[in-house]
# Entry
Amino acid sequence: MSCCKYSVSKEEHAGKTKWGGSWAGRLLFDPSAGKASATFMYRCHYDDFWDMFNAIRESEAVRYDEKVLAISTYNCKIQGMEGPTAAVVKHSFAIVETDDWYWCIDKHDEGINIQRSKRRADLKRSNWSEEREWLWIIWEDIQPGTQRTLEDLLAFIRSELKDTYSILRNCAEFVADTMRFLGICPEIRGYCSIQ
# Structure
């Protein structure tokens, strides 16, 4: 059962994160990724970002003071892309570890998705219940160069909702910017942000 006006059923959302949409500046948050029994998630936009998180904070056990412990970055095949282009153009995403959870964050052509789980494997291998294909591990368990909390990370993600998706502001750049925000230089770490 959903708890607030930001709820959307997973069934209603199924199949709606395909490529080719237009930037809506919206955030989708799945607090129970990997749980078959979970039936809803949350959706908001830039203006009501904090209202949504404050509304669900207690019911979904969102602790703003959780410390960011590590970040892992990955590439995978873009869902629905076929042929030779699929081997060259990849989707980038990050999994951030905090005190209590793993948080998968990725930017696509309509907005930013956050999925949360107690297990990294739930996030690494599937995206909204669809299996990720051709998973490449770029970096795993890189410790941040700065002390950040979940609240800091959420504020960063909110600021990114204002930047539309484009060839220069794509998923790879979002991952690289997330690393920079955490005090990690992606260029030095060998992460190629322009793909």
Q: What stands out?
A: The first helix runs from residue 10 to 13. Residues 15-20, 188-195 have pLDDT under 50 and may be disordered. Helices lie at 10-13, 49-56, 84-88, 120-124, 150-160, 171-181. Residues 103 and 144 are 15 Å apart (CA to CA).
